[in-house]
Design a protein that fits this description.
It is a single chain. This protein is an alpha+beta fold. About 20% of the residues lie in helices and about 35% in strands. It has 2 helices and 17 strands. Strand 4 and strand 5 form a beta hairpin. The N and C termini lie far apart (about 75 Å).
Amino acid sequence: MPTKNTYCRLFNKMLTLCTGPLVLLATLLFSLTANAAQITVLDSDGLPLKDAVVEVYYDAETNPPEQEKENIYQRNAAFHPKVLTVPIGSYVAFPNQDTTRHHVYSFSSAKTFDLNLYLQETPPPVHFDQAGIVVLGCNIHDHMQAFIVVSDAPYAATTNAEGMLALPTLPPGQHRLRVWHPRLDNNQEIWWEGDINNADQLEVRLELNALPPPVQNLSPLQQRFRDAS
């Protein structure tokens, strides 16, 4: 009859056989995570910048990207999200979730459009077919402002609340990198430019020269409603 020590040796051998692949998998995943490029965007004081747009240019498939459909909502007399990044050819709709009418427009060179006063009846989506920064406004509420970044880069996305963005696996080599933020410059045409490879942990500091956004002036009734909510 097998002894207790024999059972222990068999158990340890089985445990080694089972955990070996798991350790290998964990090591591989850690290696992939450690080697993935990451960008942190800060202001000149070292504070994280949310909604900074990051573009990375590299050789990609020539197949045209699928046309995306996105929404920018109007809620509490503000646009949500404040910054939206889309590829060329995308469609964006502007649903109104407020109880007051809005009049959405843009005079930007990348896209000029005008959506007259509307409430619940969302107008047809707008087609964004040219790269550039599209500044949105409301003809009724001057403080409302948002931005659509129409990108021709193979990869473009925005940073999170910590100012961070983890990039997908990039091809080998150095790649052109651009970073934009709404408060980088008043003309909305200035980008920070640099290079990045697949293993960089890059920190970008931006000097914000644009004027701060206009302050919303609430009526006493609006303020009571905001406090209650």
